[in-house]
Design goal:
heterotrimer; A mainly alpha (299); B alpha/beta (279); C mainly alpha (367); B: 279 residues; alpha/beta; six-stranded mixed beta sheet; 11 helices; 10 strands; globular; C: 367 residues; ABC transporter involved in vitamin B12 uptake, BtuC; two-stranded antiparallel sheet; 69% helix
Chain lengths: 299, 279, 367
């Protein structure tokens, strides 16, 4: 029983990472129907941005939660800006191009980000110099570290903030409107370009936050760390129903739990195979996801 | 009257809360020219899409040549002998005129992948026959431009003609034309009228959605009038013209009509701009 | 290109400079001017000459002949080594071109089929002692099975789902090969036999087998693309709805493209296994899939001369720019974006017109 609860906790913890990345994936897909392959790499860039801030301000920042928050904010601003730039330079010129061209561009962007970082920081892993207190807590017989608790809390706060933003603000309303019908929005005087930029900013910033958290938690980062998590985030988004933000979070939690249990019972070396196999299975059985609506795109 | 070719009964389709087609029943006889008219939003194109399998009807049945085709795949329905054109031209823009017409012959060309890889005699026979036939259909519709060039460079009127040639190359028993006269000038409309008569002369039933009433009255043997997804009148051009229900439907919808008409014209001035089946 | 091939440092530098020069005129230069001057539109004389060369029916036989004659021009082990690598890469690019270029489906896990081919033939030959040639039917069957497994569910969905599912599939295959004992785990398989040496130097024998297979593959892929099925692929790429309205079962057609690509990839895998004699999971990572895609996109999707040139360029370039791996990939990534924005048809685009066939009736005649 203790073991079971431990697995649930670790699943939820991993799920909250996935959720932060999956949200951006889902937002961008929802609004311009683009699979942003570079999204996972924005997470990686976030980790490296955090790393840079940490190395630069090693003496000033010290450790602790406040320092983590500061580093995260800077990294979020950096990846958010990079996301906006990416959309402006690579995706916007192709908005009316065939879908294939845009997908290939996204692959190119992913490649450019990965190897851009490899050129800038070198191909070897970097070590994050930030210890968050390693105290532990016993909950229902399962062991939780403070670091896990703090990060899950930060992730939840970020998700709630995003949800409020999308549901309550003008920009959020415009985002939802554009995902329904971009042409009508243009006619109604919505500044579509600006809203898309903001969507990229928000989504990329969340990925950046997740990147910093991953760096702090795992202690090591490398330029290819975004590849698998990008795939996982997409899987989460599909499970929840791509384009649906709450669905993305739900899907991420489901995926986190599934992985946690599969690692325990099948073995960690099969974790990714299990996750991607599940993606293929899900697309076969219920391509619209748990919370997705049936689309009448084609019969 | 001759045999029933297409039998549509109580067909319905809805998108969200909107019933685009709402219990539509009508028949098409072999070799006849039938027009489907009605104010914009009456469900004409939706009905076409249901018949050809692009939408799955939520109720009712479609029978073609005695075989129930309701809800089948568009390709299966097309292969059974229904060809169509689209409201906004749907040609294969990067391919040549000839290739576009060859698409219509696809299901008839006998050739497997070994023939193609080894260039067997059967390959050459099939390809040569297809090319010759493509030329014949292009001659038939009167398409005079360079046939070996990519089609997106051709003038709009010529593209319309190629789309009809492509549909004819399917060798259909019934041809559905969705607003073929849209965007054509006066002379081109006259040629279209002539073309439709010659198509009917081949024994192919022609079902026409059209807003140009002059053309409709001229070419149709029968007219079906839709409004709000239902049939409100049916009969010869003369009978339909004087039907009070028809006049009511058009006048009642005048405001909406003006609005939608403007949109339609906007869509037509940029041919090929839209890439979705019109709902 | 891969770790083994770039590490023939013992060879004298002259041979490798010679290799580039040799292969330059042989295989690249015929289309090579287009790489420097993107003027294939035919506006300049050079451009017109180039498109004339590209459209010529003698281009293919000439390039094939040049490829077959290479050992007579330079038979150093180094040259043969990189030439085999380049040819295998050409085969992969031509196979992926069927899926991406003809049919417009983005496959990001193409290396999976390459791996399936290499591992199937490697397993059968090392564990069960089959001759390599005999493994080919099994490889084809395995590749088709893989294609069915992934294509079956995803080809019904929006095309962009295929991209990411294939990406996942590539990882599944690689990780599985890494985890299983029968595939040798992270160490992989070694001691894979060749096709036999026919009384020649063994690497030259393998070179000729590879050259013949690859030339046939290029020929067949091109012919397939011009036939009935190839037309259907392009109809689907251009407009799925219109294709359906013409009676073309778009799902089956996409399936055929995906499976054809899988078979090409699988056979390329057999050649790779024979060439390397040892295979291991890292040889089949995403980088490979991405590089093959780049060859197709940069060369020109749907254009056989373009894709072959693209593949030769991408596989031979590393020989010129050694040690700057990361820079190279960064540039590839940026180039991919730039090409999609400024020249989506690629550097040597597919011909959009239609040549009147010589000596054959074009007009008239009964149908």
């Amino acid at each position: 029983m203790d073991h079971f609860i431990q697995l649930v906790f670790s699943g939820l913890f991993v799920g909250s990472f996935y959720a932060l990345v999956a949200l951006g994936y889902s937002m961008v897909y929802g609004i311009i129907k683009l699979l942003n392959f570079a999204h996972g790499d924005l997470y990686m860039v976030g980790a490296f941005a955090g790393f840079t801030v940490l190395s630069a301000g090693a003496g000033v920042l010290g450790g602790g939660l406040l320092a983590l928050l500061a580093v995260m904010l800077v990294a979020m601003a950096a990846t958010g800006g990079l996301g906006v730039l990416l959309e402006r330079v690579a995706y916007r010129p192709l908005r009316s191009a065939p879908r294939l061209s845009v997908l290939i561009t996204a692959v190119g962007a992913s490649f450019a980000l990965e190897y851009g970082i490899a050129v800038a920081f070198g191909p070897n892993p970097e070590v994050y110099q930030m210890g968050v207190s390693d105290g532990t807590l016993n909950v229902l017989g399962a062991r939780l570290t403070y670091a896990q608790l703090a990060m899950t809390a930060i992730a939840v706060v970020l998700m709630i903030t995003l949800d409020t933003l999308v549901r309550r603000t003008r920009t959020g309303r415009a985002m939802r409107a554009i995902s329904q019908d971009p042409k009508a929005c243009l006619l109604m005087g919505v500044n579509v370009d600006r809203v898309i930029s903001r969507t990229f900013f928000l989504g990329s910033a969340l990925a950046g936050a997740a990147g910093v958290m991953a760096g702090v938690y795992y202690g090591k980062i490398d330029f290819l760390m975004g590849f698998v998590i990008g795939l996982k985030a997409f899987t989460a988004a599909v499970i929840g129903g791509i384009g649906n933000l709450r669905g993305a979070v739900l899907g991420a939690v489901v995926l986190g739990l599934l992985e946690s249990f599969s690692v325990a019972y099948i073995g960690s070396e099969w974790r990714d195979v299990f996750a991607f196999g599940f993606l293929i299975l899900f697309l076969t059985v219920r391509p619209t996801g748990l919370l997705g609506e049936r689309v009448t795109e084609r019969v | 009257m001759s045999k029933v070719l297409l039998d549509v009964r109580d067909m319905a389709v809805q998108f969200g809360g909107v019933r685009a087609v709402d219990g539509l029943t009508f028949r098409v006889h072999e070799g006849e020219v039938l027009s489907v008219i009605g104010p914009n939003g009456a469900g004409k194109t939706s009905a076409f899409n249901c018949i050809t399998g692009f939408y799955k009807p939520s109720a009712g049945s479609v029978t073609f040549g005695g075989v129930r085709v309701t809800g089948r795949r568009p390709a299966v329905i097309a292969a059974s002998g229904i060809a169509r054109t689209f409201q906004n031209l749907r040609l294969f823009g990067d391919l040549t005129v000839l290739d576009n017409v060859r698409a219509g012959m696809h299901v008839r060309i006998r050739q497997n992948f070994l023939d193609a890889m080894l260039h067997t005699p059967r390959y050459w026979r099939g390809e040569d026959a297809a090319t010759a036939e493509a030329h014949r259909w292009l001659d038939f519709v009167g398409m005079e431009h360079d046939r070996t060039a990519p089609i997106r460079n051709l003038p709009y009127g010529e593209q319309r003609r190629v789309e009809i040639a492509r549909a004819l190359a399917r060798e259909p028993r019934m041809l559905l034309l969705d607003e073929p006269a849209a965007g054509l000038n006066h002379g081109e409309k006259a040629r279209l009228l002539d073309l439709m008569r010659r198509i009917a002369g081949l024994g192919i039933a022609v079902v026409l959605i059209e807003h140009d009433m002059g053309l409709v009255m001229e070419v149709s043997e029968r007219i079906v009038v839709l409004s709000h997804g239902k049939e409100i009148a049916e009969g010869t051009p003369a009978a339909v013209r004087s039907d009070p229900a028809v006049i009511e439907a058009y006048l009642g919808a005048e405001d909406e009509e003006a609005h939608v008409e403007a949109e339609r014209i906007a869509a037509e001035t940029g041919p090929g701009g839209t890439t979705e089946v019109q709902r | 290109m891969n770790d083994e091939s770039t590490l023939r440092a013992g060879e004298e530098p002259l041979a490798y400079a010679g290799a580039v020069e040799e292969r330059g005129p042989a295989n690249v230069a015929l289309g090579g001017r287009g790489v420097a001057t993107p003027a294939a539109s035919g506006r300049t004389t050079a451009g017109r000459a180039l498109s004339g060369v590209l459209a010529s029916r003698w281009l293919g036989p000439c390039v094939a002949l040049a490829a077959l004659a290479l050992p007579y021009l330079n038979s150093s082990t180094y040259v043969i080594q990189i030439a085999v690598d380049a040819l295998i890469f050409v085969m992969l690019a031509v196979g992926l071109n069927i899926v991406v270029g003809y049919c417009g489906l983005l496959d990001l896990g193409y290396a999976a089929f390459f791996a399936i081919g290499a591992y199937t033939s490697g397993l059968l030959s090392t564990r069960f002692g089959w001759p390599l040639l005999a493994t080919i039917p099994v490889v084809v069957a395995a590749a088709v099975l893989g294609g069915l497994l992934i294509g079956g569910p995803t080809l019904r969905l929006r095309s962009d789902y295929l991209a990411i599912v294939t990406l996942g599939f590539g990882e599944i295959i690689r990780i599985t090969a890494n985890n299983l004992d029968v595939t040798g785990g992270p160490n992989g398989l070694y001691g894979i036999p060749g096709f036999g040496d026919f009384g020649l130097r063994s690497d030259i024998a393998l070179y000729w087998v590879t050259a013949v297979v690859v030339c046939l593959a290029v020929l067949f892929a091109g012919r397939l693309g011009r036939g009935r099925l190839g037309r259907a692929w392009r109809f689907v790429r251009e407009d799925e709805d219109a294709a359906e309205a013409m009676g073309i079962h778009t799902y089956k057609v996409k399936f055929a493209a995906y499976i054809a690509g899988a078979v090409f990839g699988g056979i390329a895998g057999v050649l790779f296994a024979a060439h390397q004699t040892a295979i291991s999971p890292p040889s089949f990572n995403f980088l490979w899939s991405a590089l093959i895609l780049m060859a197709v996109v940069l060369g020109g999707m749907g254009s056989t001369p373009g894709v072959v040139t693209g593949a030769l360029a991408i596989s031979l370039l590393p020989e010129l720019l050694r040690g700057a791996e990361n820079w190279r990939y960064l540039i590839f990534g940026l180039l991919l974006i730039a090409v999609m924005i400024f020249r989506p048809q690629g550097l040597l685009p597919a011909r959009t017109g239609e040549a009147r066939r010589r000596g054959r009736r074009v007009r008239g005649g009964a149908s």
